[in-house]
Design a protein that fits this description.
With about 475 residues, the chain is of the alpha+beta class. The chain folds into 2 domains: about 5-225 and about 385-475, Zn peptidases (Aminopeptidase, 3-Layer(aba) Sandwich), CATH 3.40.630; about 225-300 and about 310-385, Alpha-Beta Plaits (2-Layer Sandwich). It has 14 helices and 18 strands. The relative contact order is 0.18.
């Protein structure tokens, strides 16, 4: 990393210790003085198992929304509502928390997004601590949602508490908090929610606090997301199952045919082999192979797939995975030629890829590579647009400045291999808004997995960085940050 003093974003300090007219040290002190209380609040949030899946108790999700609403009120915002949009079939929608503080004249409005629902805990035997009892150990806080994304909620709350403490009545920026309650279920009502409450959520800058930093001690601004298309591929070879001893040989069973079809989706070096997909080597961050192997738990001896830099393979090239297969389990298997087998694919798309064209390309490929003339049925699934940040825009420049001041190291402008499909909805409905994707996670946070955790030092820095971002936008607006 470069010395922070070499950064064009560092700014100039005056004799009071202000930087670019913002009292960085006062905000740092305020965040630090309140940090134990912030962690305690996060601990109480982690204890609420709010899961937006139908198989889980919906009352816990309601309890989580009420707790979030109460925390927001402690941050100086009194206009707090719990809103929802019902499902098309009439089922009650999941609760979202929306809070608003209006902007003073000539001040921008900032929307702060996070989500209060969490993933199910999964296999309890894999957890080293109780998933819904936040536990501090070796500088980290363990528990389901400790990182994804209840820490995002508390980053917003903690930043606003510090801003109110230091700026008070001088804080004229408008603030809207949107804390969703169904993100881990795929945000099924997100677009309908935006359509219904579009005016309440209208803003000049949108901060999505649901991403990751580069590593512990090094912050990142997520500047690109891959898009996503998924769907199912069905292969049928027989009208019905038959005895493998009596009929096996002249015809291949459906699982074998499906495996042969799946094998055509990548070439010999592991690159996606579907014609018509966008790919580039444009990622510039130096993500070392050894770091990637450690972060992703690749086993020794496993060769990495694809070509080009690790960062490009993660951020600016497509990646296809088979995430589910419908065949009998080994324990239920019999000597039978199976007539049909299905697989679900998940295809991550490089920025610049048209999602409809990508879905059509997969469909063309599987029909063109139908093995042994088997019947192939393609069923498209979900789709989400890719995203790229204009890092020369004022809000992005302010965010990079804030990250550097908080961590005292240069932030990384990092892509993300994953997708946040609802960002495309935000871009469509608020085309003039500048979208910033930030986060509190690091490569060992293990979001969605057992032993999810949060580095507490980075959490404190993330709160300060958001407070500095708000202070910067309050001071300079969106006229530019040089």
């Amino acid at each position: 990393m470069n010395d922070p003093q070499d950064s064009v974003l560092s700014g100039q300090a005056n004799s009071r210790g202000d930087i670019d007219g913002i009292d960085v040290e006062a905000l740092r002190t305020s965040v630090a003085s309140q940090f134990d209380a912030t962690v305690a609040d996060l601990t109480e949030l982690v204890a609420i198992p709010g899961i937006a899946w139908d198989a889980f108790d919906a009352q816990e999700l309601e309890r989580g929304a009420q707790a979030v609403a109460a925390l927001i009120r402690t941050a100086g915002i009194s206009d707090v509502e719990i809103l929802r949009v019902d499902f098309p079939d009439g089922r009650t929608g999941r609760p979202a928390v929306v809070a608003r503080k209006p902007a003073a004249a000539n001040k921008p409005t900032i929307l702060l997004y996070a989500h209060h629902d969490v993933q199910p805990p999964g296999d309890a035997d894999l957890w080293e601590t109780s998933p819904f009892e936040a536990t501090q150990k070796n500088g980290r806080l363990y528990g389901r949602g400790a990182a994804d994304d209840k820490a995002g909620i508390m980053a917003h709350v903690g930043a606003l508490r510090a801003i109110n403490d230091i700026l008070g009545d001088d804080f004229g920026v408008g603030v809207t908090l949107f804390i969703e309650g169904e993100e881990e279920d795929g945000s099924p009502n997100f677009r309908a929610f935006l359509d219904k409450y579009q005016d309440k959520l209208r803003s000049d800058v949108i901060v999505v606090a649901d991403s990751s930093n580069w590593k512990v001690g090094v912050p990142a601004l997520t500047t690109s997301l891959r898009g996503l298309v998924d769907g199912t591929i069905e292969v049928r070879a027989l009208d019905h199952a038959v005895h493998s001893g009596m009929f096996g040989g002249p015809v291949l069973d459906a699982p074998t045919l499906l495996a042969r079809l799946i094998a055509t989706l990548h070439d010999n070096d592991g690159s996606v082999a579907i014609d018509g997909l966008v790919a580039s080597d444009s990622a510039t961050a130096n993500y070392k192979e050894a770091d990637y192997r450690a972060d992703s738990s690749v086993l020794p001896g496993v060769t990495l797939a694809g070509t080009g830099s690790i960062a490009s393979r993660l951020w600016t090239k497509p990646a296809l995975s088979i995430i589910g297969i419908d065949v009998p389990s080994v324990v239920l298997s019999s000597n039978t030629l199976l007539p049909v087998a299905r697989a679900k694919f998940s295809l991550r798309l490089a920025p610049g890829q048209n999602i409809a064209q990508a879905m059509a390309a997969v469909e063309r490929h599987v029909h063109a590579h139908a093995p042994f003339g088997a019947q192939v049925t393609f069923t498209p699934g979900e789709a989400g647009q890719a995203f790229a940040t204009d890092t020369s825009a004022p809000a992005a420049r302010a965010a990079l400045w804030a990250l550097e001041q908080s961590w005292n190291v240069m932030p990384v402008e990092a892509g993300m291999g994953g997708s946040i499909p609802f960002v495309a909805d935000l871009m469509e409905l608020y085309p003039q808004a500048q979208i910033l994707i930030t986060g509190v996670e690091d490569p060992d946070s293990r979001a969605h997995s057992a032993n999810e955790s949060l580095d507490l030092g980075d959490f404190k820095n993330a709160i300060l960085a958001e407070a500095l971002l708000l202070a910067k936008l309050n001071s300079e607006g969106l006229a530019g940050t040089e």
